[in-house]
Structures are given as C-alpha cells and as structure tokens.
C-alpha cells in the first residue's frame, strides 16, 4: 500500500508543467516587412527539335543531327551556358491506325548577356522551335539584396516595437520570439514568337523579341515582444 502511495506522489510531482503554466503578461505580436523590386539579370530559353518519321531509328538520327548543329552554334557563344534535355518519343495514331513516331529533344540556354543569347536564339530558329523564354534574378543578386532587406526589416520591427512600447506607457520591451522568412516571387514565363517548321528555310535569322521584367524580393519578420514597466 505504501508503495502505491509513493508512486502516486511521484507522479504528481513529475507531472508536466503545462498543467500549471502561467500566462506571460505584456506579450504583443508584431510583424514587419521589407521588399524591393529587383531587375532580372539572367535570361533563360528552352529550344527544342521536333520531328516525325515512320522509322524510329531515322527519327532519332534526324533529331540528333539537328541537335548537334544547334550545340555547335551555341558553343560559339562562350557567355551562354547550354544544358541538354532528355529525348522523348511516342507513337501517333490516326483512327487507331499507326501513323508515325514523333520525337522531341530540348536544350536550355542561360546567360546574363541577353543580347548575345537573343542573337543565338535567332540563329537557332532556323531549325529549332522556341518553347519558352523567361528572365530571372540570379542567386548572387538575390543573396546580396536579401542581406540588405534583412537589415531593413529588422529596423522596421524595432521601430514598431519602440512605438508600441511608448504608446502603452511602458519603459522598455524585450524580444520574446522572432522568425525571419525570405520570400522571392518568381516572374512568369514570357513566350517569344517562334517559327514553325515551315519557316526553317528562311535565310536570315533575327533575334527574338524579348521583354525583360522585374522580380519582387521580400523579407518578413514576425514574432512577439514583452512590454516591461
């Protein structure tokens, strides 16, 4: 019997403190932000070779030949980074009757020199299709802007905290909890005017019509402070 009484006593002593938590007085939730519109500095384009043929081997040879031609031209632009894409193919049917194989292979072109990449895209349109063109902010630029915005957001948080402390006739405040989040809004994809297969015979290739845009970078700070007399 004494053993059970001892166990019950220990369980009471070791019970979680949450059952007797004391509400902290003077807590105020706060949120502060800092944002900046940043001009995009990196251009990314996806171009592809598409073809059809009854023989899958001939189809692959056709696509590989055009892709090799495109990569050879891209190598002449050292300020453009080229990333290869996967080759895909599937069968085409017409009223359940096999018609041909259709294949596609794409490459991604990336550069901070939009004029050079625009010229390259114009050349590649002779045999390739433009799938998408977009601008984005480089990682290096995002990191630099974020450092500045974090400082600004912290200052905004401190300014709000000081104002609230003063208006509630308190002497000072202490930070009870704080979280810092970064939010980089990605820009939408802008599609350029592309030439179809029927235009591949054109002698001259002109740069694509491109429009640069901006991206919003934002830092959010949320937390709570404790007002002290």
Mean pLDDT, as a whole number? Answer: 82
Question: Structural class of the secondary elements?
Answer: alpha+beta
Distance between the termini: 52 Å
How many helix segments? Answer: 4
Topology as a string of helices (H) and strands (E): HEEHEEHEHEE
- What CATH architecture of the largest domain would you give? 2-Layer Sandwich
Can you tell me the number of structural domains? 2
Helix coverage percent: 25-40%
* Number of distinct beta strands: 7
Radius of gyration: 31 Å
How would you describe the shape?
elongated
For the sheet with most strands, the description reads:
4 strands, antiparallel
Percent of sequence in beta strands: 35-45%
Short characterization:
With 229 residues, the protein is of the alpha+beta class. The protein has four helices and seven strands. The chain has a four-stranded antiparallel β-sheet. Strands 1-7-6 form a three-stranded antiparallel β-sheet, with helices on one face.
How would you characterize the overall build of this protein?
The protein is of the alpha+beta class and 229 residues long. The protein folds into two domains: 26-38 and 137-186 and 213-226, Translation Initiation Factor IF3; 41-134, 2-Layer Sandwich (Alpha-Beta Plaits), CATH 3.30.70.360. 31% of the residues lie in helices and 39% in strands. It contains four helices and seven strands; from the N terminus they run H-E-E-H-E-E-H-E-H-E-E. It has helices at 2-13, 56-74, 114-124, 139-167; strands at residues 27-39, 42-53, 81-94, 97-111, 129-136, 172-184, 214-228. The strands form two sheets. It has a four-stranded antiparallel sheet with strand order 3-4-2-5. The longest helix has 29 residues, at 139-167. The radius of gyration is 31 Å and the shape is elongated. The two termini are 52 Å apart.
């Amino acid at each position: 019997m004494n053993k059970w009484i001892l166990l019950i006593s220990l369980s009471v002593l070791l019970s979680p403190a949450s059952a007797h938590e004391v509400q902290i007085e003077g807590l105020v939730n706060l949120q502060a932000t800092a944002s900046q519109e940043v001009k995009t500095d990196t251009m990314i384009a996806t171009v592809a070779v598409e073809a059809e043929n009854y023989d899958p081997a001939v189809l692959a040879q056709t696509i590989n030949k055009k892709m090799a031609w495109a990569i050879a031209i891209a190598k002449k632009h050292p300020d453009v980074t080229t990333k290869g894409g996967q080759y895909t193919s599937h069968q085409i049917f017409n009223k359940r009757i096999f018609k041909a194989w259709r294949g596609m292979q794409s490459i991604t072109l990336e550069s901070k020199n939009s004029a050079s990449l625009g010229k390259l895209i114009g050349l590649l349109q002779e045999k390739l299709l433009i799938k998408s063109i977009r601008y984005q902010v480089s990682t290096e630029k995002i990191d630099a802007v974020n450092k500045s915005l974090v400082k600004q957001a912290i200052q905004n948080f401190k300014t709000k905290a000081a104002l609230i402390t003063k208006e509630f006739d308190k002497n000072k405040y202490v930070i009870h909890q704080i979280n810092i989040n970064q939010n980089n809004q990605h820009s939408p994809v802008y599609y350029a005017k592309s030439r179809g297969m029927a235009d591949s015979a054109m002698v001259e290739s002109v740069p694509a019509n491109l429009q640069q845009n901006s991206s919003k970078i934002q830092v959010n700070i949320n937390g709570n402070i404790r007002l002290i007399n």
